[in-house]
User: Fold Fructose transport system ATP-binding protein from Microbacterium pygmaeum.
Amino acid sequence: MATSEKARPIPAGLKLTGIDLNYGFVKALDGVDVEVRPGEVVALLGDNGAGKSTLLKVMSGAHRPSSGTIEVGGEVTEFRSPRDASAAGIEMVYQDLALIDAADIATNLTLGREPVRKGLLGWLGILDKKGMRREARKELEALRVTTAPVTRPVEMLSGGQRQVVALARSAVRVTSRGQGALLLDEPTAALGYAQTRQVEDLIRRMAERGIAVVVVTHNLPLCFAVADRIVVLNRGRKVADIPTVDTDNDAVVGWITGARAPQPGLERALL
Assistant:
């Protein structure tokens, strides 16, 4: 490993304990515990209405839990908004990707942290376009991403290339803060086979850099291809939390549908 890689800060992970979320008399989440460690990919699975998207919104600061604790980098914290979560190092990649179509790849990758020109031009807020492109190339090379030239507008990219740009942007933000996690909501939902493989490779490379990754997906092949651990929710309760190598497709489907009993030790979650 190169010296620069050794010096790179390793983002600390994310831990949620006893998370409850109530909508009036409806309990959307019931005592959910989830942890994702640095360099680990956790697949968060469940049927529609199981609570996985709700839990992702708690992680990202979009919803505040009724009770429970959230820890980032070993420190208990509270998110009052997605901005608080982002400041703590929690980055969310939504299905719509939130990219600026008319802007080029370099602009999208450095969005919110654009370098400015030196001297008076910088004082006037003039952006350093060459610096932005140089930084974008450096970030893509660090993730070993081969995509279009950084000067190409996002609106000219394929679905897979757009997803890669969104993932790379969020990965860089997490790494720069030195803590947190990357949250992915159905990252391959609209992609073909080749594009899905490209995204799978990038997810694993992000984990290799020490980033904690949570993936919400209905795509079980993706889950088994990239995840180190699988967490299954059913009716807002955790019914499985198991290393991927210790389970199989049939067991996971059983937990998702409710046809299989919860893992030993998690039975009380259904009382």
About this structure: Residues 1-8 have pLDDT under 50 and may be disordered. The longest helix spans residues 159-177. The domain at 9-102+153-270 is CATH 3.40.50.300 (Rossmann fold). The two ends are 49 Å apart (CA to CA).
